[in-house]
Design a protein that fits this description.
Elements: E1 2-6, E2 15-19, E3 29-38, H1 41-47, E4 64-72, E5 84-88, E6 97-101, E7 105-107, H2 114-118, H3 121-133, E8 142-145, H4 151-163, E9 166-170, H5 176-182, E10 186-188, H6 195-202, E11 208-213, H7 218-225, E12 227-235, H8 248-258, H9 264-270, E13 273-276, H10 286-302, E14 309-314, H11 318-326, E15 333-337
Parallel strand pairs: 8-9, 8-11, 9-10, 11-12, 12-13, 14-15
Antiparallel strand pairs: 1-2, 3-4, 3-6, 3-15, 4-5, 5-7
Helix pairs in contact: 3-4, 3-10
Length: about 350
Amino acid sequence: MKQIVITKSGGPGVLKIKEKSDAAPKREEVKIRVKASGINFADILARKGLYPDAPKPPCVIGYEVSGIVEAVGEEVEESMIGKSVLSLTRFGGYSDVVTVPANQVVEKPESLSFEQAAALPVNYLTAYQLLVVMGSLQKGESVLIHNVGGGVGLAALDIAKQIGAVTYGTASSAKHVFLMKRGLAHVIDYRTQDWSEVLKQLTNGRGVELIIDPLGGRNWRKSYKALRSTGRLGMFGLSTVSRPGSGGKLRIIKVVLQTPWFHPFSLMNSNKGVFGVNVGHLWHEGPKVRKWMEVIMNGVQEGWVRPHVDKSFSFNDVADAHAYIENRKNIGKVVLVP
């Protein structure tokens, strides 16, 4: 099989294609011939040596794939062979063949392409945990989605619209027309405007009930201040440290030093809440996550879950794919196609 390997920490050029013998599925596993692999910000950080969960180089990353089941382990029904599926992967997704536990696999809806299916697991599970499970977003409440033009952002927009919430989002001006057509009620250009001041004007000084923020550092403090009473701040990722160029480790130290502390007394007196989300730390909660995935798959059938793939890159062009995301060119998901 072919795999994309992080040979060492660094820029996109450290990603190399290497050959390896196919692995046979274990007793409770399935072997998938991969048709598409999703790329996430965690992959960018892992390549730069800034993601503590990632294996040490040389390693193969990747959290999600779609493809066709080629073989199954002894304890898996043979009827799965030949089925089109999507799956979470605990790294290793940048391969044209993967073996994964059968309980992580979901049958692909016919309405989705393999590329769209690979855009589902990480983005929509993260957004669902942020908005529904922990954010408790209700009909008629308001939500600010930072980086609303990204993969998690668009997934969150789909879910917020289904709930019936009022939606606000930050994005560069080049993405505004697309986002408004997608159904975003209020879009703010974070590059040319102070988003907190614009949000204050749009909400008549009240703020919003929920903010989901992948930026990190001082922006979390700013987001917390933009919550109204009973508001919740959902923090995930550190996208500010994934900008192209050198200085990544110094940048992450700076972001960590700028990160606010939330004292219980101030939270009580402000009637506000804060929480964090990292789907990559929920492998021990398989049954719970699977229930969330069932809701998302029902959303595909009902038409309100609409994974948007901005661009597909071949394995040979993986360096270009990473650079494309780092330069914030994508609207929605970027995937790799073996």
